Amino acid sequence: MIPAQWYLLLSAAVFCIGLFGILTRRNALVFLMSVELMLNAANINFVAFSLQHGNLTGQVFSLFTMALAAAEVAVGVGIILVLYRNFTDVDVTKATTMRW
Q1: Which residues, if any, are the signal sequence (predicted)?
Q2: What is the extent of the structural domain holding 17?
Q3: What is this structure's pTM?
Q4: What whole-number distance in Å separates Cα of residue 36 and Cα of residue 78?
């Protein structure tokens, strides 16, 4: 059996990649993919601790997080389509002109 430390190391690496994508990129699609990576890192933690403690609570939370991620992508793609329609680009720095 693989120890939980390896799962936590994988989760930390995936989370750091997602955080790097959010902090350095301006493309809205990359933002969405980076948020998905961060949510998947949390899912790895949930499942790893669920496996370690021998109950299914972490796996249930992981399924809930996957449903939340699906809803987030649906709303995010709608926002990106509006952004592209108004500015013909998906650069998030151009959307500051849409403020009140």
Answers
A1: none
A2: 4-94
A3: 0.86
A4: 16
